[in-house]
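Table S2 (continued). Query chain:
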Amino acid sequence: MSNFFSLLKEGNKPSLLAAGVNAFLGLLKGVAFFFTGNVAMFAEMMHSFGDAANQFFVFIGSALSKKAPTPKFPNGYGRVVNLVCLGAVLIVAILSYETIKEGWHHFRHPATESTGIAIALSVLAVGGILELFVLHKAAKEVLHEVGMESTGIMSIPKSVKYLNRAKPATKLVWMEDLVATSGNVLAFLAIIIAHFTGFFRLEGLVSMLIGLMMFYVVGRVFLDNARGAIGETDEEMMIHIGNLIMEDSHVKDIARLEVIKEGEFLHVEVVAETDPSLSLAYLDDVRDRLTEMLLSQKGVTKVTFAFDEEDSITQWKHKPTP
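Corresponding output:
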């Protein structure tokens, strides 16, 4: 049990923060929906509860993925976070469907008057501020994970460029809170417009739009983590590592190079070609040095390095890092 709690300390912090904030907002929006009956508020309530459940499971998964390899699982538990994310998105998918269904019902049978507008707008304003705060935290974490400096509120647009290089849990939190922040803004505007124009069908339309945005996140997260669960190559790191290896004077070519994502970690397998006249003892020292160099690269936790004799057929050419 103590080992489990130690692992929890290594869990993805932005996802835990996001889970707590969204659980609080879900309750707040639920109370507001109870008093106002506003369908846009219902959509936001479902959205917040879905994000809270999703992000809590992701936090647990990211913590468990840090468990050390065992004889039975020599590659470690890195892909656990991908499997948990795949399960978590099912919750969001169900809530997305319910949100769209409720929005469609309200579009066909709209309300005849606006009630509790002050409550609804106050709750959405609080929600928008808190969601923006969590999005900013997630954006800073994205930049931290790729070794970039955060730049205040500009961290959010800056992080878009590096989102694909972020850890699965951080990427999920970033995407969900972007949609959550946008959903708060849309719901806020829909309530104001409906109140002053009497076009209450707009609240149903916004509810369906929020549900579709949630489905978009479900699709993106599912595809990203399905690839991770199968075992995806990190193309950018493969090029970077290949170029590093080829800089060593003892390496004549690379016969095989694999850089596989294991959740938040990278496992590297290399077969390099070298001069066959070199002794095994000498090459063993070269291999140890190259292995240590690769293990110092960001995210790399396991390296398998082997040498083969040079065959005079060039297979690896220097490539620019994307």
